[in-house]
């Protein structure tokens, strides 16, 4: 409310004229109020609004938000108010109270892919046998000229015939439910190149009809589960994703749309920084966040991400197998109000496709790529050292030695629920690598995390965070303007033109 005693500085006033006390212009998305004060000066207040400010659920209106931090902010995409009360939200509260807060071991699953057509044609011998029922995998080794079976036990074992769906339903479905209950969860795919890490995480291509194909991997299935669950609960929610690649100890955003004002070199090299917030949390500054509205949307993002990966071939593999990719889904769900306070619960799911675990020297890395190989090794080696330190309870855990372990610190020995899917090939040609994967994964089983649900956020906290976010975006916009001129939406342009005309009319 502004009256003649308003303390506003006259410097902030756009123009000076005598006009009627107040005029109101109402458009679909904004209200502009012109207020006369000090008799001569006019204050312009524009309030942008949307019809419903209480609903967070996506309305198909497209992308929102930039940047990601350790405590990611939800977008508030409005949609007409939904039915209330939501009884299932109440169930979530009670399950939280019942939740076991003790230490839990990292879950380790093993998946053995089938022999490829080519391997079958060449009659490649198999050295792996999976017993899903006993959760055992045995590997046939030649020790002192004798064939010996070595047996490993995991939390779950999936043989070559295991379908994407059954792995998801048995192993990942419960994890996604935890995310919906407000936990952070991480799934790592670890294994030699060509053993099915990307197949397990992303899976086959989309179907034309829009339904998920049988080959769909963890990412599209997780997105669909989140949608299906929350829609069935009639919940108000928002879901957004980030997709980054860690290559040569540099973070690359796989979701940014190409910025053609930059040279192709600059575009490819634009690094994104890993920042610490002073409270022990690490966040990625400048990462694009994308709102998703259907499980099918996710394929556009995955395709965009895949297209961004460079494919500098070496003798053995491609960039995608020498880089780590981290796909993160963040879900915010509005809770039924308790008293006057509305709370929002959020959970985060990291889906990590690690670089191939094979011995780097075999990739034929040389010259310029030697450093690259070393740096990739650095993240993967540090991951191994972190696992060892945690298993051996040594005082110092070298999280800070690589970006991967800094980024996913909380997934190893922290409050996150973590699962590792180790992938192997059944082929005799991969015996050494398979053994090393089995050893590594078996060791990781001993890591204990202490999962804790994220603290719920109050609406006031959310609003405060969103104001901060707006402030940041304003700064970005200012920076962009200084460099490249002004870019605004058509809607906003039309609005501003109309306002200018109106102002001219008023001044005259
Ligand atoms: P990685 O990401 O570990 O390098 P990929 O996921 O690219 O390996 O898998 C290598 C090849 O094997 C791909 O052509 C993939 O489709 C196929 N593949 C992997 N796992 C399976 C599986 N369980 N069933 C059928 N095909 C598989
Ligand atoms: Mg891969």
From TrEMBL:
SMART domains linked: KISc (SM00129)
Domain Kinesin motor intervals: 105-447
Principal subcellular localisation of the protein: cytoplasm
One of the GO BP terms on file: microtubule-based movement
Keywords carried by this UniProt record: ATP-binding, Cytoplasm, Cytoskeleton, Microtubule, Motor protein, Nucleotide-binding
Basic and acidic residues bias locations: 79-89
Keyword Cytoplasm: yes
Residues annotated to bind ATP: 191-198
InterPro entries: KIF11-like, KIF11-like_kin_motor_dom, Kinesin_motor_CS, Kinesin_motor_dom, Kinesin_motor_dom_sf, P-loop_NTPase
Xref: Pfam families: Kinesin
Residue span of region Disordered: 54-95
Gene Ontology molecular function: ATP binding; microtubule binding; plus-end-directed microtubule motor activity
Subcellular location: Cytoplasm, Cytoskeleton, Spindle
One Gene Ontology term, aspect cellular component: mitotic spindle
Function: Responsible for microtubule translocation. May be important for the organization of phragmoplast-specific arrays of microtubules. Plays an essential role in stabilizing the mitotic spindle. Required during mitotic cytokinesis.
Family that this chain belongs to: Belongs to the TRAFAC class myosin-kinesin ATPase superfamily. Kinesin family. KIN-5/BimC subfamily.
Protein name: Kinesin-like protein
Organism: Deinandra increscens subsp. villosa
């Amino acid at each position: 409310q502004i009256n003649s005693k308003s303390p506003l500085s006259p410097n902030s006033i756009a123009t000076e004229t005598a006009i009627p006390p107040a005029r109101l212009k109402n458009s679909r998305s904004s209200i502009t109020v012109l207020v006369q004060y000090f008799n001569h000066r006019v204050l312009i207040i524009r309030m942008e609004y949307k019809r419903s400010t209480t609903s967070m659920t996506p309305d198909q209106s497209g992308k929102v938000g930039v940047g990601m931090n350790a405590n990611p902010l939800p977008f508030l995409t409005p949609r007409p108010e939904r039915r209330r009360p939501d009884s299932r939200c109440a169930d979530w509260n009670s399950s939280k109270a019942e939740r076991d807060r003790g230490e839990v071991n990292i879950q380790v699953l093993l998946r053995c892919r089938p022999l490829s057509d080519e391997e079958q044609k060449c009659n490649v011998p198999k050295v792996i046998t999976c017993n899903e029922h006993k959760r055992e995998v045995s590997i046939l080794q030649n020790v002192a000229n004798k064939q010996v079976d070595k047996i490993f036990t995991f939390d779950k074992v999936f043989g070559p015939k295991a379908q994407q769906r059954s792995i998801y339903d048995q192993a990942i479905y419960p994890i996604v439910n935890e995310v919906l209950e407000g936990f952070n969860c991480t799934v790592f795919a670890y294994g030699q190149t060509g053993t099915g890490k990307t197949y397990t995480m992303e899976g086959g291509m989309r179907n034309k009809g829009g339904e998920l194909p049988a080959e769909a991997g963890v990412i599209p299935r997780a997105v669909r589960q989140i949608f299906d669950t929350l829609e069935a609960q009639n919940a108000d929610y928002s879901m957004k994703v980030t997709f980054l690649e860690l290559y040569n100890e540099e973070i690359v955003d796989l979701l940014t749309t190409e910025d053609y004002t930059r040279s192709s070199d600059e575009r490819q090299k634009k690094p994104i920084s890993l920042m610490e917030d002073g409270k022990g949390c690490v966040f990625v500054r400048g990462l694009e966040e994308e709102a998703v509205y259907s499980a099918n949307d996710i394929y556009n993002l995955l395709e965009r991400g895949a297209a961004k990966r460079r494919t500098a071939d070496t003798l053995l593999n491609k960039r995608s197998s020498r880089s780590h990719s981290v796909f993160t889904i963040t879900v915010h769900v509005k809770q039924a109000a308790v008293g006057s306070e509305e709370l929002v619960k959020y959970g985060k799911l990291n889906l990590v496709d690690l670089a191939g675990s094979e011995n780097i020297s075999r990739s034929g890395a040389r010259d310029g790529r030697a450093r690259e190989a070393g740096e990739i090794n650095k993240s993967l080696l540090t991951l191994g050292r972190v696992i060892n330190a945690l298993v051996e309870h040594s005082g110092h855990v070298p999280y800070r030695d690589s970006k991967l372990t800094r980024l996913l610190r909380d997934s190893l020995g922290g409050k996150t629920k973590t699962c590792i899917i180790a992938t192997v090939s059944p082929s005799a040609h991969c015996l050494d690598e398979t053994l090393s994967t089995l050893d590594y994964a078996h060791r990781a089983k001993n890591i204990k995390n202490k999962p804790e649900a994220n603290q719920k956020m109050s609406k006031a906290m959310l609003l405060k965070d969103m104001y901060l976010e707006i402030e940041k975006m304003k700064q970005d916009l200012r920076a962009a303007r200084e460099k490249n001129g002004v870019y605004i939406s058509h809607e906003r342009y039309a609005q501003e033109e109309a306002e200018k005309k109106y102002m001219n009319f008023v001044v005259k």
